[in-house]
Amino acid sequence: MRYFNRDSRDYHFEETMEAGIVLTGSDAKSLRTQGASFNGAKIDLIGNRPVLINLTIEPYKYAQNQQIDKTATRPLLLSQKQIAKLISYRRQKYMIVPVVIYTRGQWIKVEIGIGRKIRKYEKRAKIREKEEKKF
């Protein structure tokens, strides 16, 4: 199971990290069966703690508790060194974006990309290079 963020193609990543994500039981089951939507998903530092914002997980249809917020902020599990690195990148005006959600054994992980947004002329040059390589 791998769910990719299509918006991550618009970024040039300097570094990527793997983080755990805090989920409820029904969220985890729903993520394994139905997937997730990254529309507008981002990672922010609230009180020096990284959280995943606007990741849409549909409610699990067999869950007892149906009062679940689809786009709740979900804390990320990182070491203190990784959090310090994220804070320093954030001060340098880098964007922190979720790239992929996947399972590693029984755990659900999020790959975090740290980088800058690609400008339009850089995208065009990239597309031009791909076209030239084809022929």
From TrEMBL:
A biological process term (GO) from this entry: trans-translation-dependent protein tagging
Segments passing through the bilayer: none
Pfam families: SmpB
UniProt superkingdom: Bacteria
InterPro entries referenced in this protein's UniProt entry, alphabetically: SmpB, SsrA-bd_prot
Any one GO MF annotation of this record: RNA binding
Keyword annotations from UniProtKB, A to Z: Cytoplasm, RNA-binding
CC annotations in GO: cytosol
Entries under PANTHER family matching the protein: SSRA-BINDING PROTEIN, TMRNA-BINDING COMPONENT OF TRANS-TRANSLATION TAGGING COMPLEX
The name this protein goes by in its record: SsrA-binding protein
